[in-house]
């Protein structure tokens, strides 16, 4: 068996007979430190060493340490008689890949599926079964170039998302804007190959010979391209059709396709997906019900926690504000308003609204005023908007719009108290705390 995942000490010139004479604890320590390759060799040396090297305890540990599995299952999920058989099965199936990378990619998919199972089961059902190495080689032959090793492994464990009528709501993440939904889903490898062929044709953009389309949105033209030569993941901008403009989605310094030391290879697609998972696990982004489609849920990219989501409470009214960067409407060079953001202001009344010492169970939303300061310039935006805010309402009152200045906007909402759903009182202002508008390190 080739070298295992971690570097372990060699047995040196120790002979089987010398090892047989070791006390059980010492022998167990030697086997544990030597690793699965040496354990498999010792099992062929003598009956005594076979019994020690075949211990379920050690093979369970090897499986956990090297592959990240805690049950005797093969890569297809079938039960096996022992952890030793499990290790050998996984090793044979992924012999082309470094085991530490196999463990990392497997853990990513396991954790993502676990999150989806708990918070968004409908999206979990769209994830397709993984591909074989033969399937991937056929795709590479069709492309005329090889995929990065990490991308191959990602497709080994999951072949993107199945095409379904509700995929626009069951993608991996997006945002709503007015009555439109932008929601990105992962493409199966076959569609990634088909998209790559279109990139080579003359469609107005610069031809991309080493790119594949790994993710896109059902409606808006939001497309993510993986450069299989450099490993960087790109998203197209509004100028893509005219001049092929794209922007990187991952810091270049983190990408490693070929390593000469002990560093693990990692491309832009893996780093991007892992960053997305961290946002889900931390609660920064969540599965939400859209404003205009109440029968569906989606993973909303609008931040939910500080510092990218601000919170203020005035007169008992809670106001949360956050924004998402919109690369498909932005540009990289030459446009004075090159960065575009969608923002959401979410208002709720957890308890009573208190104005002039009086308590109200509802109030009327009348207008929104945003102030953006950039150096010595001040921009004002005022929007008239009507709506009734009720105490303990199950959903937040939401208002969204777009902006193209990378600063810290702040402002206020204007309300008037009401009784029995009718205005009753004077106007009062509710604070909108500053919320950041800046291109993120990872672009989604």
UniProtKB/TrEMBL annotation:
Top-level taxonomic group? Eukaryota
Record's InterPro entries?
ApaG_sf (IPR036767), F-box-like_dom_sf (IPR036047)
Protein name stated in the entry: ApaG domain-containing protein
- Source organism of the structure: Panicum miliaceum
